[in-house]
Amino acid sequence: xxxxxEAPPPLAPAAPEKKPPRKRGRFTPYWLLLPGILWLLVFFAxxxxxxASTSVQTGSLEQGYKVTWxxxxxxxxxxxxxxxxxxxxxxxxxxxxxxxLLGYPLAYLxxxxxxxxxxxxMILVIxxxxxxxxIRTLAWKTILADSGPVVSTLNTLHVLDVxxxxxxxxxxxxxxxxxxxVCGLTYNFLPFMVLPLYTSLExxxxxxxxxxxxxxxxPFTTFRKVTFPLSMPGVVSGTLLTFIPAAGxxxxxxxxxxxxxxxxxxxxxxxxxxILDYPTAAALSFILMAAILFMVTFYIRRSGTEDLV
Amino acid sequence: MPFVNWLKRHLVVIAGLVTLGYLLLPNVxxxxxxxxxxxxxxxxxxxxxxxxxxxxxxxxxxxxxxxSLSLQIAVWATVGATVLGTMxxxxxxxxxxxxxxxxxxxxxxxxAMPEVVMAASLLTLFLNMGAQLGFWTILxxxxxxxxxxxxxxxKARVMxxxxxxxxxxxxxxxxxxxxxxxVTLPIAAPGIAxxxxxxxxxxxxxxxxxxxxxxxxxxxxxxxxxxxxxxxPVQINVIGTAMFLxxxxxxxxxxVVSNRxxxxxx
Amino acid sequence: xxxxxxSGDVRLSGIGKTYGSFTAVHPLDLTVPQGSFFALLGAxxxxxxxxxxxxxxxxxxxxxxxxxxxxxxxxxxxxxxxVNTVFQSYALFPHLDIFENVAFGLRRRGIKSVxxxxxxxxxxxxxxxQARKKPHQLSGGQQQRVAxxxxxINHPKVLLLDEPLGALDLKLxxxxxxxxxxxxxxxxxxxxxxxxxxxxxxxMADTVAVMNAGRVEQLGSPTDLYENPQTTFVANFLxxxxxxxxxxDSKTGGEIVVRAGGGKLLLPEARCSASTTTGGKVLVxxxxxxxxxxxxxxxxxxxxxxxxxxxxxVDSSFIGVSTQYVVDSPACPGFEVYAQNIDRDxxxxxxxxxxxxxxxxxxxxxDAAQDIDAGVETVEEEAA
Lengths: 309, 266, 384
Prior knowledge:
Chain C: GO terms for molecular function: ABC-type putrescine transporter activity; ATP binding; ATP hydrolysis activity. Chain C: Residues 10-238 form the ABC transporter domain. Chain C: Keywords: ATP-binding, Cell membrane, Membrane, Nucleotide-binding, Translocase, Transport. Chain C: Part of the ABC transporter complex PotABCD involved in spermidine/putrescine import. Responsible for energy coupling to the transport system. The structure holds three protein chains of three kinds. Chain A is mainly α. Chain A has a domain at 92-303: MetI-like fold, CATH 1.10.3720.10. Chain A contains 13 helices and two strands; from the N terminus they run αββαααααααααααα. By secondary structure, chain B is an all-alpha fold. Chain B contains eleven helices and no strands. Chain C is of the alpha+beta class. Chain C has two domains: 10-227, P-loop containing nucleotide triphosphate hydrolases (Rossmann fold), CATH 3.40.50; 241-372, CATH 2.40.50.100. Chain C has helices spanning 48-56, 98-108, 115-124, 140-152, 170-187, 198-204, 222-227, 232-237, 378-383; strands at 10-19, 22-32, 37-41, 63-68, 71-72, 83-86, 158-162, 190-195, 207-212, 215-220, 242-252, 255-260, 263-268, 281-286, 292-295, 307-318, 322-328, 335-340, 353-358, 364-366. Chain C has a six-stranded mixed beta sheet with strand order 6-7-8-3-9-10, sandwiched between helices. Chain C has a five-stranded antiparallel beta sheet with strand order 13-12-11-14-20, with no helix packed on it. The model of chain C is unreliable at 1-6 and 378-384 (pLDDT under 50). At the A-C interface, α8 and α9 of A face β6, α2, α4 and α5 of C.
């Protein structure tokens, strides 16, 4: 049997990015890269540095700002705006979880159950993108209007009593409450959950489902033990693609929320565009960036998808 | 218990369709309310049916101007991002060079960054440089954040392409330029098209970065934003509905065409 | 799950499968006795895989029933059937390591302590060292053995193998054939094996069912199928046959005399599957290795009792153990003859006039109403 161990190389090696062969024209790649990379360096990386330096400046709009390594700005910003930071993380996390719960069945439906309707449903998921998201978000004002059918139904079913008690809504309204903001965030970023989920579900070999069934797994066990673990790359990228933009968003909080639902994006926007307190705004956006990078790294590590992707 | 069994078997389908409904409900509202005749300045409550707005879509001051500005910016941003992004994608897949990891991170980071952070830092740069905010700063910003998406889309396509195809072309007497034009580019085209389409949609619909870097220039999303404060004209629903329809028809049309082509080939 | 353990017979009664207007499997009856190694052989699209999937429960039959022993399992979902499958290209779970892949079925049935069983099973397929590797880290042959172990550990009544060796190269395939045969003998479970490779089916199986266009053409032991094909499809699909269109001349004492190309041939009546009447048509067949080849000059030395045909060599290829000749004769163009390279006659080169002769006992007769070329080509195309 020892001959069997000299079998041919693995059929499906974990192929990372293939190393492309070295070609003639040693400088060609650099010429190809130059304009685009320069663009990103000047208009993405350099601004980050500017912002870092702005965040430790002091001064005023009239007299100009100087770098004084005034790190206290960070402390002041954090101690003043921690509720908004916390709110952003909570709302964004809630929206990401809701997106996952709502988006998974839809992605599953498209990948495995839609048959010839697959393309049509796919179009319906993507098409709303072409109506300005601001217009669509404003439509939620109509849907969740105080006198509208949604609110009255929730009222009749006493759902609002529960959400009031939880602090998600206030009085007989949904608009201008955390629930409305989270609902808007979920709605706005849902396609960013559905699409990566669909991609990773669609890649699963159908025979794996059959094999699980053959090995005594009931349909739900098959989902729990085979389908879901194999869709983890989609789950991870979907939650990231919803959490990150939701955490920095201020449109939903502004249009559907109230002063009690202000998120960190609203604060940064106001500081920058209305109050013109550049150091504080820069510090806030730096903290947001650092926090998100930290959480994302931790999340990817924890979910252990590195060897899956 | 046949009903319970039926429900059990189709639970996923029902849940998926509920989500689809959630995704499409606002579009339905937008469409319905484009036929509304609101009482006050805001178009949030149904009053009575009217086709006034459809008859006079540009009847609101500045709206169509902002729409055309947004379209122009979207077109130029798409062109810029597609050209630059495709070049980067080719360099990444087809060549070996130093600092590959750094380039990859530089491409990835803009996609993993909240828009408000990029918007604020870019504004800091423009203010420091004393740049005049307007058309050009918006365009620069849009090319910047669309670039990464184009690179990702094109890269995926070029990577799945068999490099032996190019070798075969060269073996069959095609020079480097001919190989690129006749073989590489046609095969990469779907990836490039996807990247371009995505750029157009992202640029046209962008609000946060634009809002920071536009100065006094008003794009269509900014017009909508402003009207949310001042009063929402019915015409923005007309525009929203029209864009939705155009997009759906465009996709359906291209699907029919590609279906027919594959059927002819078969 | 099972009421009796006495019988692992698989009984298919009239099961068939249609997709819309296309009939993948015509209603067929088949009994696979317990403990046998059974092969379903046929070209792709002949319905063999569909039949297998109906036994596994992955496909609902359009008609008929599937019984395992006394139990009717026709409408049981796969996870409730005491049947396991080795899938084509294996379908190993890529997110689980080898140990967990093998333990999957046991865990689903609520068995807590799986370690001992899994270790034993991995020993059986000689993969003890690889337990903690992921499937993609193994070679094709190793993956194949994991797939077998993963199915066998559940002690199914029947193990179904769907082209289990299709993804392996030739040399490895030979080794795995012997290996699977060894395992089957060791565990004594019924194996039903789907393949398009006639050599594989003949090497491994006790009983082979040859399928064509959704029907079972013939069923029997490999020797029986090879020596006594009942249809032209079987004659051509299993090995090579020379088929001669002939006319029945007379019948005497258990032998049929037929006329073909001006000569007369003898055919034992017992080996003729078609009903024959004097003056009727019949197809006379003989395998290429049963034929002896003599130069026309030596024709006088051939015994009168043998069937003989004259012709001219048009092609010869030297294979090492044998030489394969193609001979054109008035009775049949493109006659194939395999001659052992014992004493090579230097006169037997293309262009030479020759006499082909064989024992009448090696002749078989087939119904002349069939397509004479059924089942030719397809084999080599797919075995590649």
